[in-house]
């Protein structure tokens, strides 16, 4: 019988100890964030896929996602210093042979988030040797 009295007495002492605090005080704090004007831009690859003979009708597209702070006007370009929205370039292989192509942006400016397209085309040209041809371009967002 005494075995049960010891845990019971300990529980009663603990419950009684929780009311030892006789006063309470508090303070407040402030949460804060500063949103700065900024933009993020991401572009997907433009892939013409597998082509046997270039006849000048091949097209491909990619996308450009622009995400700016609310109300931030932005302008998209293929140049860091001017508003170039079309380019003529060439994809090259490891042997230096190339495939000409052109690309254009479907839009140039906006406010807030947007998804635009990169529209690309191969002009009629002599088909070079079979290989993988690549080119790297940059899309700039000015805000």
Based on CA atoms alone, the radius of gyration comes out at 33 Å
Question: Which secondary-structure class do the elements indicate?
Answer: mainly beta
E-strand count: 8
Low-confidence stretches: none
Proportion of residues in extended strands: 25-35%
The main sheet comes to: 5 strands, antiparallel
Give the terminus-to-terminus CA distance.
81 Å
Q: Strands across the major sheet, in which order?
A: 1-2-7-5-4
How many helices? 1
**What is the string of SSEs from the N terminus onward?**
HEEEEEEEE
Helix fraction by DSSP (H/I, runs of at least 4):
10-25%
Question: For the residues shown, what is the average pLDDT?
Answer: 90
Overall shape: it is elongated
Task: Give a brief description.
The chain has 143 residues and is mainly β.
Describe this structure in words.
With 143 residues, the protein is mainly beta. The protein is built from 1 helix and 8 strands, in the order αββββββββ. The protein starts with a helix and ends with a strand.
């Amino acid at each position: 019988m005494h075995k049960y009295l010891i845990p019971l007495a300990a529980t009663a002492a603990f419950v009684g100890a929780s009311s030892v605090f006789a006063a309470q005080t508090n303070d407040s704090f402030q949460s804060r964030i500063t949103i700065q004007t900024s933009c993020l831009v991401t572009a997907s690859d433009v892939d013409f896929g597998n082509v046997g003979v270039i006849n000048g009708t091949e097209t491909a597209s990619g996308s450009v996602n622009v995400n700016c702070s609310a109300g931030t006007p932005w302008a998209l370009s293929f140049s860091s210093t001017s508003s170039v929205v079309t380019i003529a370039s060439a994809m090259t292989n490891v042997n230096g042979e190339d495939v000409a192509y052109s690309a254009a942006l479907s839009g140039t400016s906006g406010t807030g988030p947007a998804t635009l397209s990169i529209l690309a085309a191969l002009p009629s040209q002599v088909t070079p040797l079979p290989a993988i041809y690549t080119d790297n371009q940059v899309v700039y967002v000015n805000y």
